[in-house]
Write a structure and sequence with these properties.
- With about 400 residues, the protein is an alpha/beta fold.
- The protein has 3 domains: about 5-185, Nucleotidyltransferase, domain 5 (2-Layer Sandwich), CATH 3.30.420; about 195-285, Orthogonal Bundle (DNA polymerase, domain 1); about 300-385, DNA polymerase, domain 1, CATH 1.10.150.
- It contains 20 helices and 6 strands.
- Strands 1-4-3-2-5-6 form a 6-stranded mixed sheet, with helices on both faces.
- The longest helix has 21 residues, at about 210-230.
- The chain is flat.
- The termini are far apart.
- The relative contact order is 0.08.
Length: about 400
């Protein structure tokens, strides 16, 4: 087993940056977080590899300012696997690639059945990777040697994988498609914060009444504040199901809350006062949340036949047409066209001609190659659906 060490010293960091700047070609980059363990999504390890330079494992919390790394590699293409997962953590450090090659996305566009890193590495260069530490707590210090080897192997082969996939994309005539997808991934803006993030509480649909929703909100907020203060994943303190159990049980006292068997978690009893005070605030507040929140989310397609029969016919006509195109291109349908884009067009089409469909797809965020492959077929399917007689309703008797 090769020996790897973590760079946490400023002098070592400067030496590594100089080596990377003097390397050749694209730069492989990966990030390890402590998702499920820590509150934040910060990077606890950044792995970088470049030919003629080697592999370096950086400890961002120990190093602090990593702008020298951006200076060293910020003019090169960065190779990442599942880039959308790592870009937010890299940007939090001030690390921003000018362009990317996403090996997972490339594998999807090529229609590979398995697109995890280990599968793609084995497919392209025949090297088998062990993935046993992917869910580890990377905030652990010191990091075990086996974890460091795992982290290094995430980037050591990535440039070779990139070259192999680039050749396959060129052979399949998909180089431009991939370029547009990589650029879109890099340009994608983060989702705006939710107006009422507490509504993400799992099982909240079971809570009835504005007062009970206020209790749920206060419990969620109290847990969030404590989790941020302790830098611990909220679910590790008190899981969602326990907060929900406390809301539904409506305990009359702090003692009753303590006696609630379904209210568990490592902080359920040690922070009992915190949770009880949150319940009291929810019961006493005059700031009651809305029971129903307006949403632009479309109803589930299974209800369309009753709620919007014409939209149902359009979707049922267009979906197979899009699936057929994806099959011809040997890629998953969702990579050819985001399913929600097709549903929105079918629910309320801007028109039934190709130009209107193309303009609507562009507005929704579809890439030029996606529009070129799908707009005309969708328009034709919509026209055919409107010309076909409606199916008779099923006899409910």
């Amino acid at each position: 087993m090769a020996e790897y060490s973590v760079i946490e010293d400023r002098t070592e960091f400067a030496d590594a940056c100089r080596a990377l700047a003097a390397g050749a070609g694209p730069v492989a980059v990966d990030v390890e977080r402590a998702s499920g363990f820590r509150y934040s999504q910060r990077a606890y390890l950044v792995q970088v590899f470049r030919r003629d330079a080697g592999v370096f494992l950086f400890d961002p919390p120990a190093i602090g300012d990593v702008s020298a790394l951006q200076d060293a590699i910020g003019g090169e293409e960065w190779v990442l696997h599942a880039a959308s997962q790592d870009l937010p953590s890299l940007r939090e450090l001030g690390l921003e690639p000018p362009s990317i090659f996403d090996t997972e996305l490339a594998a999807r566009l090529l229609g590979l059945e398995r697109v995890g890193l280990a599968a793609v590495v084995e497919h392209t260069i025949g090297v088998a990777l062990a993935k046993e530490h992917s869910a580890a707590d990377w905030s652990t210090r010191p990091l075990p040697a086996a974890w460091l080897e795992y982290a290094a192997l995430d980037v050591v082969h990535l440039v070779d994988v990139r070259d192999a996939l680039a050749a396959e994309l060129a052979e399949a005539g998909k180089s431009e498609i991939a370029a547009q997808e990589f650029a879109a991934t890099l340009a994608r803006l983060p989702k705006p914060p939710r107006e009422e993030p507490w509504r993400r509480l799992s099982g909240l649909h079971r809570v009835r009444g504005a007062r009970n929703l206020a209790v749920a909100r206060e419990l969620w907020t109290a847990r969030e504040e404590y989790a941020q203060q302790m830098d611990v994943s909220p679910g590790r303190l008190v899981p969602d199901r326990s907060l929900l159990a406390a809301v539904l049980a409506a305990p009359p006292s702090k003692q009753a809350l303590a006696g609630l068997s379904d209210f568990n978690g490592r902080a359920s009893r040690s922070q009992l006062d915190r949770w009880w005070q949150a319940i009291v605030r929810g019961r006493e507040t005059e700031d009651l949340p809305r029971e129903r929140v307006p949403s632009d989310t479309l109803p589930p397609p299974r209800s369309w036949a009753e709620r919007n029969p014409e939209a149902d016919r359009r979707l049922k006509a267009a979906r197979p047409a899009v699936e057929a195109i994806a099959e011809q291109l040997h890629m998953p349908t969702e990579n050819l066209l985001t399913p929600d884009h097709l549903r929105r067009l079918a629910w309320q089409p801007p028109g039934l001609d190709t130009e209107s469909i193309a303009a609507a797809l562009e507005k929704l965020g579809a890439r030029p190659w996606q529009i070129a492959h799908t707009a005309q077929k969708i328009a034709e399917a919509f026209v055919e659906a409107m010309q076909s007689p409606a199916e008779p309703a099923e006899d409910a008797s």
